[in-house]
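Fig. S4 source data, part A: sequence.
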Amino acid sequence: MYNFLQRLSGITSFAMSTLMALAVVIALTTPFIPSTPTHSLNLHNVQTTTGRMVDPFDKQSRSAEYARLTFDLDADLTSLLNWNTKILFAYLAVDYVTDDFETNTVVVWDRIIRNERQAKLKLRKHHNKYLLRNFAKTFDGASPANLTLYVNPVPYLGIMYDKPLTSVGFQIPRPVKASK
């Protein structure tokens, strides 16, 4: 009655329609999977110094203020790993307000988590991985800052979102003059 290609086309169309419906159901239900990550964040020390950094994109390369953080991080993020999670992207960001800019957010540490063994974070007296420097080259007029742990689950299928877990407030101190 029908030839081979018409039957193959019908079967393929049905299979693709079924897979697309399954993909929509997966994408819509994944955010509702319960997760309870445990976490604690302690900030030990914040030091601000003035110095010059060689920046290939900054032709003026003036001296600026840099902040160095020392923190402890304990987090068990295994509950965020499920059958639709490809990787977790965990990062610490510092948020503060200055006179020039309403919102300043600087990522100071990050980690890509691929399995359950890596999802258990235990960092002691760890320093920021990335430079904390204000765009105006000084922290004058900076409001009290917040160090926040964010987790971004990257799904195989669905929407990516940032999930703030914990936050610690602190004041950015005035720089310490280096002795010559």
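Fig. S4 source data, part B ends here. The first strand starts at residue 38 and ends at 51.
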